[in-house]
């Protein structure tokens, strides 16, 4: 009975060793005293280890020291690197990590406790899988950044007038309210200008909408050349523009408004062989520190525009706060 059982056990061990010799993974089996019990040929081949280092009975500490000095565990204090590897066996817990070897190979290390014995580690070359994963992650990151850029561009375009390339009314109100809050905190004066192109309907009637668009563009460019870098110009709607002047008193706002009026009056466009000229009515108002929003100043400036038109157009009217 004993001989039959012994033969069966020997056959099982032979089959097991044969299987471990022919699998893709490298295998390291250690006992509870941190001694090597078994390694398959793949383990020595993977790390190019001298056979004496992994002979049954050799200590895992000696093996880990060799691998640490070979750079397999990365940078750091070698004693600490060895201690970390030894502590895995002592923990009796499952273990898994992927690491990049000095030769560029990615290896997956999996450790499992063996009941009543010790610990078994398997080492698998996962370089191909890891490189595919890294390529995929890079592609996802690139695509994500492309989407972010596209979203930023969409947000930018949503804030622009598609014809003139200056900001639209909605974006102006957001910027103006932010500047208004900052100005109240710093005590800086602000002013609002409303600019309405005179008799613009006649421009469209004479030169068509394409001609009217050219006039609008010329007027916008003329105003951009007059206002300062901290001022904000927007299309308010139709042939009407709104401007927020930073750090501007009533006197300086009126002076800027007059400069805008003269710049627009100086525009001469050749449209289909005919000269197109235009004037503007400009309303000026200041933003009172007591006003919660810039909207009240915009209403006053708009009222001033109507007063300028009623007075004969091509002029500046101021209705301060």
Automatic annotation (TrEMBL):
Domain GGDEF stretches: 188-321
A cellular component term, taken from the record's GO annotations: plasma membrane
InterPro entries recorded: Diguanylate_Cyclase, GGDEF_dom, Nucleotide_cyclase, PAS-like_dom_sf, Rev_trsase/Diguanyl_cyclase
Domain of life: Bacteria
Signal peptide: none
Catalytic reaction equation(s): 2 GTP = 3',3'-c-di-GMP + 2 diphosphate
Coiled coil: 133-160
Annotated GO biological process: cell adhesion involved in single-species biofilm formation; negative regulation of bacterial-type flagellum-dependent cell motility
E.C. number: 2.7.7.65
Pfam families recorded: GGDEF (PF00990), PAS_7 (PF12860)
MF GO annotations: diguanylate cyclase activity
Entry keyword set: Coiled coil, Nucleotidyltransferase, Transferase
CDD domains: GGDEF
Protein name as it appears in the record: diguanylate cyclase
Organism per entry: Methyloraptor flagellatus
Lineage, top ranks: Bacteria, Pseudomonadati, Pseudomonadota, Alphaproteobacteria, Hyphomicrobiales
């Amino acid at each position: 009975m004993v001989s039959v059982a012994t033969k069966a056990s020997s056959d099982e061990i032979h089959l097991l060793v044969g299987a471990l010799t022919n699998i893709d993974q490298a295998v390291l089996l250690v006992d509870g005293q941190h001694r090597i019990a078994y390694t398959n040929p793949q383990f020595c081949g993977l790390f190019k280890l001298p056979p004496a280092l992994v002979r049954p009975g050799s200590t895992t500490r000696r093996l880990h020291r060799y691998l640490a000095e070979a750079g397999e565990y990365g940078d750091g204090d070698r004693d600490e690197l060895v201690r970390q590897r030894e502590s895995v066996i002592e923990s009796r817990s499952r273990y898994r990590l992927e690491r990049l070897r000095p030769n560029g190979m990615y290896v997956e290390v999996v450790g499992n406790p063996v009941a009543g014995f010790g610990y078994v580690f398997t080492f698998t070359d996962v370089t191909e899988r890891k490189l595919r994963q890294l390529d995929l992650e890079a592609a996802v990151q690139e695509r994500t950044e492309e989407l972010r850029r596209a979203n930023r561009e969409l947000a930018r375009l949503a804030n622009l007038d598609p014809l003139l390339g200056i900001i639209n009314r909605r974006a102006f109100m957001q910027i103006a309210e932010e500047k208004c809050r900052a100005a109240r905190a710093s005590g800086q004066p602000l002013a609002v200008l409303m600019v309405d192109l005179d008799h613009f309907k006649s421009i469209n009637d004479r030169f068509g909408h394409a001609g009217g668009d050219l006039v609008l563009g010329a007027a916008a460019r003329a105003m951009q050349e007059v206002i300062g870098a901290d001022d904000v110009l927007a299309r308010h709607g139709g042939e009407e523009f709104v401007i927020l002047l930073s750090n501007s008193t009533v006197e300086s706002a009126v002076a800027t408004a007059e400069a805008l009026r003269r710049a627009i009056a100086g525009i001469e466009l050749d449209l289909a062989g005919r000269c197109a000229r235009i004037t503007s009515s400009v309303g000026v108002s200041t933003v009172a520190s007591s006003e919660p929003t810039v909207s009240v100043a915009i209403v006053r400036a708009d009222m001033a525009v109507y007063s300028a038109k009623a007075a004969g157009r091509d002029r500046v009217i101021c209705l301060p706060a």
